[in-house]
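Entry 14. Ran structure prediction on the chain below.
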Amino acid sequence: MRRTALIASAALLTALLPLTAVGTASGAADPPPVPVDRFEGEVPFAGQPAEGIFTWGGDADDPPALQLTERADAPEGAKVLTGTYDISGYGGFTHDFAATEPAHDWSAHKGIRFWWDGRNTTRKISFEIKDGGANGEASELWTTSFTDDFTGWKQIEIPFADFVYRTDYQPVGGIDHVLGLTQMWGYALTLPVGLQGQFAMDDVELYGRADQSLRASVTTDAAVYPVREGGTAAVKVSVATTGAAPIDEPVTVAYESAGGTATSGRDYTPVHGEITFPAGTTSGTSRVVKVPTLRDKSAEAAETIPLKLTVTGAKAPAETPQVVIDAHGLPYLDAKLPVKKRVADLLSRMSLAEKAGQMTQAERGAVGNGGDVAAYDLGSLLSGGGSTPTPNTPEAWAKMIDGFQLRAQATRFQIPLIYGVDAVHGHNNLAGATVMPHNIGIGATRDPALAERTGAVTAAEVRATGIPWDFAPCLCVSRDERWGRSYESFGEDPALVESMETIVQGLQGARSGKDLKRGDKVLATAKHFVGDGGTGYGTSTTGSYTLDQGVTKVTRQELEAVHLAPFRTAVDRGVGTVMPSYSSLDIVGDGLGPVKMHARADMINGVLKGRMGFDGFVISDWNAIDQLPGDYASHVRTSVNAGVDMMMVPYSYKDFRTALVAEATAGRVSERRIDDAVSRILTQKFELGLFEKPYADTGGASRIGSAAHRAVARQAAAESQVLLKNADAVLPLKKSQKVYVAGSNADDLGNQTGGWTLTWQGSSGPITKGTTILQGMRDAGGDVTYSKDASAPTAGYDVGVVVVGETPYAEGVGDVGNGNDLELTAADKAAVDKVCAAMKCAVLIVSGRPQLIGDRLGDIDALVASWLPGTEGAGVADVLYGRRPFTGQLPVTWPRSEAQLPINVGDSAYDPQFPYGWGLTTLGRTPAGGLSTLKALGLAAAAAERAHRGTAGRALVTKARLLVQQKAGQHITAALAKPFADADHLLLTGRYGAAVRKLTEAYRAA
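Output, structure tokens:
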């Protein structure tokens, strides 16, 4: 019999029975259990929208293998559900009820139970149920767990009262955050990670009678109620029921102000009494308890007044609400005082534990409702990639962060949190935000003013959601395109990276920090200090990574010139925070060998803070100290003493704070070092204005994803396009032409935005709001036909556009050799071959790094490096159709083969497919002339250099570059490529005369 029919018949039977028989009256017997799954074959293995059991996982080998197995020891019937699993990421299975059927009502029952064949693994297994929404994949998830600490069959009973709202992941966002139980869509189990195992399960059913004390709950509208001294706090007490039915028995709430750090009668007027919600009270009904505070003349830290609630007839609140009398009269609270004095005053009042808390940063998903913010005096929270509120809206972000800031108000000195997020190409964790091209595309624009504008848009959208701190920009100098983070770099030349650091001003405003209080600016982070872009292939020891988090082996001269130079510029620009790299630094000749950057006091304390004069604070990378040698105490001691001021310890924040206090108490971390770190952190919090305005200023929220912001992203996407080849002037297209569009990345928003978009790794498909390249071409008025795999007939078209490239990845997951290469997929190659054989064709490569295309270059008429252009595919269409000219230049060298890697400007042996700085233009006519023209340009460029006329000098070098490109065509030899690339480096360093001389050398070789 199908389970759906069983529930329907049970519900019908329940409706026909007298009320006393179904347990709505006190003392009545429990209703009979209602089957959900008997696993006799009544529920198929299927997926939405059909009813069925289906598996899922983080990657291809994570989903478990399931089957229905006949077992003589089956607790019910003949068959049980069995499975095997070996999960490295996450995995499990779900039973979804058919989306085309009405949802099921479980509200009459106490809970859900099932039989589990225990293997005594001692591991927890998550069990979640799906409540409300349109179907099982668009419902709220409520979760709990049980522990497999037994052997053989055992019936697991889980009361619905044990389920909590899942905060780390929700498929579509919160609906009402109430476990209604009247619209249920199924359940799911998440199996243990890192364990090769088997399981068996049988007879999932609903059991028991819904007891009001389990289905009714008393809540307060907040956990913390700050109030100015002399004011009155109003605590709203509400009663709510599962299923939203009126309560059928009275609920009483006795309240009493007791305990805390405030003194009854001196700091506040004590209150006590009782609230009664009579039987029949509607769910959601509220009463207000008022707690008056008293004014005195002394300056004081914040004081707490817990309001103890004793509940009869319902579930009590999970926490005792606290009224907090705000700190007042203390010098650090005086906004008119200099920041330095405010910091000194506050620091002098803090305990060691409070200071250690300020140096601790936790992941928001780890602190649940935020109670630990006050319990551990946490200084900071962050959202890792994909760690978002539900729903993922600007309003929900602001509400979530305000809720965490409210928790900080319950601490002695009410030090606000500083909340951070990886907004590395726009506010990329927020659905609907403006997503910019990744840094490699910004580097291709060679437009510092535009880089600053992209930073300003990002800052405005981030701050409008209540976030004052951005873990960007990445100032890595990418020296090997096999690195999975190479797209986070502006380029392979430190001079190019330095030129793009105008983005720091876009994010922070003035170098002095005076703009940080504005509602459209954020604290920036220069990362990753130092050398993360120079790691050697095969040196990583992190999992299956090949380059990321590996070893950078350099001479001191290379370190200074290549990797440290961008950080000098960032410090000069006033960047507020710096993040060390996961990677190790091996300086030739220093005798130390490879040392993890989080342990390099010589670089963090010595070079960054000492020689460069960095006065912001240093934030670790995600769990980076765990990679240091020794025990945990050693990790903490070594990193803090090396100069790391705040530790990103997402889920081990309690351990870190405890260990730091112990190390400081033992004298292994000095009080002076602790005070330096906390002073740096507090300084930035004061500069950001968080003490005066800790909560979100959402005044700019309406501009998130606005037309004006998207116009900046569109311009950046257009300027980032690098035209590598353009035989017979195939580009720009004409609107009168019939265009055949193909390729995997023509109509995929997720692919064109890349990693770090909504989730850490990013994903393919329509993941956010934006315009694909195909849609941009259509919107431009083009006569376009689309066939993703080029399977549609190709006859009758004037030109083809094939958009190919990579799918999203981030960090070491994207390293070449870790399941990745620089080749196009077989499908993309087939699309290129078919279209380019049938008509004139332009190939666009949407990727985070160069792709090997040399074997097909002869058959391709036009080739464009599109990088990862972000959400505004219309910007790509703008250059394809000539609305804007192609002006982009290669920010990295484009290799002929993977064997050439690493290959970079300045190498002694340099023979690429396309040199660094290459980029054809469709901007008007190419300058005419030859060697005599170059000689004249050289003289003029040298004069501009002497006169410090940068605009004129750059224009003269550009003319010379275009002359060389025109003469060379596609005949790029090593003799041409090396001086050509060197010229672009010289241009970026202001040596215009020398740049033209190098271009003249390239011209002679063409």
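The longest strand covers residues 196-207. Will compare against last week's run tomorrow.
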